[in-house]
Amino acid sequence: MKIELIKGDITKIKVDAVVNAANSSLLGGGGVDGAIHRNGGPRILEACQVIRDQQGECPPGEAVITTAGNLPAKKVIHTVGPIWRGGDFNEDQLLTNCYINSLVLAEAHALTSIAFPNISTGVYQFPKVLAAKIALESVRGYKNENTVSCIEKIVFVCYDEVNYQIYKGLMD
Predict the structure, then answer these.
(1) CATH fourth-level superfamily of 2-171
(2) Rounded to whole angstroms, how far apart are CA atoms 137 and 133?
(3) What positions carry a catalytic annotation?
């Protein structure tokens, strides 16, 4: 598995799956979630509504998969990051679960490339450096434990310069 870092818009990335930093309703929101729903078109929302009808809301740390609609990706993996509440409410483990469950879902659908945004670092206020460390540790741990994997490429996509520089410093 190759791990890459780019600064850009995750809705423009051509990979098998883009990960959406969704809210538990799965019905769209702000930030990455809003951009994916806007740029992907109504088929993503329709697929999310079907999932909601079947299982209800998606809890933090869990992930579901839908069509990518009009995005250049094949699929969208929606994962719900934790809201930062000071670090005493299992936030680190829930964020780890977001990455691991997204990778497991990608693997289950035989996807070879996946792009992650900076999960929970916007309105959910997870500290950016800690979130980046957890993201990198999670995917590296997954890579080390799954030496036989269909996933060939993992891309971290940072929309803003602050997150990009944090990831760049941690990856060097």
Answers:
(1) Leucine Aminopeptidase, subunit E, domain 1 (3.40.220.10)
(2) 6
(3) 33
